[in-house]
């Protein structure tokens, strides 16, 4: 019964000694702690801002056209052939809307055609959409710079990008003809009235995308009520895994269909985020290393100025291992102060901007051009709050290893003679 009490008493004594020792030089301790606090506040805010910008980037990129989840025929994503269709696509989309009332759902069909004006011809992607539901999936209906969006699902009308309009030298009210291949191998052709022109901010999309009503598309391309994609969008990205699982169960009776989330639809977007995070952590590493060297300097000075004291203690029979652990414990307590205060202040700063929003100078004009929110809202969650400070805490502990190891080479007599 006595041994546990002696161990607990020894541990408590070590904590008291360590806490007392770090406040011997209050100014030096506070300067080191403030360096950790500043770095932790900065890391919490910057990481939260990054996570928030990534979420906004993902949402706005997917909201531009593709949606967050798509239902397709297996293999269509890698090889978009006309014959790989989702049968009775509008009824299936309606069934999904009934089962997922909080999600936006729209059916689509795709074809590559030659589109011509009176003066020029260009190849383009022609997309058949449901005019009444496309607004919930894509931001294109809100990016019109001239005219209106599609109305009647069977009307021979088209909405094109601003670059395409310039290349074809057409404006709203003009007519375009298209020529392509139908599902059954027949020629698909028609005359379309340009009712709207959009500007998405993406040169590729504005040059190579045109939208027509899905009903007209199905008639022109002999689709027989088929289509190629059912696109879905939800309010929160975190709901996607659960929704994907439920969708797979819903389409289970439809052979050949697959559910693809945004990572499968746009792998380049995920890679871009990973590359940005990697480059950001190179900058963060510089800050963390500087703080670690500050801790190393503080603890090394603390050990050197207590050389005679350590010599006397070692002469009394205390082993270097105990003294090294004491130095590490001092670093642990000092880093813990910086961790807790830094996390608290960082969470308060990030929480304020998560409510009020954060904007760079000139961001309003840029955001309006791309139909994006004018501010970024930091993503405040346990990971964004703890990730940066935890790395700083670990590096500070590693920085204390060298001062602690110096005690193993200390000789009591020589140490007591040190000036």
Please provide a written account of the structure.
α1 packs across α11, α2 runs antiparallel to α9 and α2 packs antiparallel against α13. This protein has a six-stranded mixed beta barrel. The longest helix has 39 residues. The chain contains 15 helices and ten strands. A hairpin with a 4-residue loop joins β2 and β3. 54% of the residues lie in helices and 17% in strands. The protein has two domains: 209 residues, no CATH class; 199 residues, no CATH class. It is elongated. It has 419 residues and is of the alpha+beta class.
Can you count the beta strands? Answer: 10
Mean pLDDT, as a whole number? 87
How large is the count of helical segments? Answer: 15
Strand % is: 15-25%
Helix content: 40-55%
Uncertain ranges: 1-5
* Shape by Cα distribution: elongated
Provide the descriptors you would attach to this structure in a database record.
419 residues, alpha+beta, 2 domains, 10 strands, elongated
Structure summary:
With 419 residues, this protein is α+β, with helices and mostly antiparallel strands. The protein has helices at residues 2-22, 26-64, 89-99, 162-168, 203-208, 214-220, 240-250, 262-265, 267-305, 307-315, 320-356, 363-369, 382-399, 401-406, 412-416; strands at 69-73, 104-116, 121-129, 144-147, 157-161, 175-181, 187-198, 209-213, 229-233, 257-261.
């Amino acid at each position: 019964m006595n041994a546990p009490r002696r161990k607990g008493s020894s541990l408590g004594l070590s904590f008291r000694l360590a806490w007392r020792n770090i406040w011997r030089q209050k100014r030096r301790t506070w300067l080191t702690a403030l360096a950790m606090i500043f770095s932790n506040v900065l890391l919490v805010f910057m990481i939260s801002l990054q996570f928030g910008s990534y979420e906004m980037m993902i949402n706005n990129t997917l909201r531009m056209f593709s949606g967050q989840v798509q239902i397709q025929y297996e293999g269509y994503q890698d090889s978009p052939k006309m014959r790989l269709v989702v049968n009775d696509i509008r009824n299936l989309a309606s069934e999904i809307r009934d089962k997922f009332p909080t999600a936006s759902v729209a059916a689509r069909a795709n074809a590559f055609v030659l589109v011509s004006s009176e003066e020029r011809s260009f190849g383009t992607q022609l997309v058949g959409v449901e005019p009444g539901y496309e607004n919930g999936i894509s931001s294109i209906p809100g990016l019109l710079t001239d005219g209106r969006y599609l109305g009647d699902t069977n009307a021979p009308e088209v909405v094109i990008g601003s670059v395409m309009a310039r290349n074809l030298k057409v404006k709203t009210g003009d007519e375009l003809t298209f020529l392509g291949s139908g599902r059954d191998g027949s020629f698909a052709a028609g005359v379309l009235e340009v009712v709207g022109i959009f500007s998405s901010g993406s040169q590729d999309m504005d040059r190579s995308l045109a939208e027509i009503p899905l009903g007209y598309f199905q008639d022109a391309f002999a689709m027989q009520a088929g289509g190629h994609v059912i696109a879905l969008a939800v309010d929160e990205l975190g709901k996607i895994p659960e929704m994907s699982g439920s969708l797979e169960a819903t389409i289970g009776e439809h052979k050949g269909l697959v559910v693809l989330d945004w990572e499968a639809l746009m792998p380049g977007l995920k890679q871009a985020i990973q590359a940005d995070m990697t480059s950001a952590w190179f900058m963060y590493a510089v800050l963390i290393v500087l703080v670690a060297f500050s801790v190393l300097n503080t603890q090394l000075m603390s050990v050197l100025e207590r050389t005679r004291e350590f010599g006397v203690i070692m002469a009394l029979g205390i082993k270097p291992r105990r003294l090294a652990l004491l130095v590490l414990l001092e670093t642990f307590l000092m880093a813990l102060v910086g961790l807790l205060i830094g996390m608290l202040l960082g969470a308060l700063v990030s929480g304020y901007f998560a409510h009020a929003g954060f904007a760079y100078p000139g961001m309003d004009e840029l955001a309006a051009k791309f139909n994006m929110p004018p501010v970024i809202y930091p993503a405040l969650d346990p990971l964004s709050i703890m990730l940066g400070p935890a790395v700083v805490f670990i590096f500070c502990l590693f920085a204390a290893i060298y001062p602690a190891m110096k005690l193993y080479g200390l000789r009591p007599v020589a140490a007591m003679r040190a000036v």
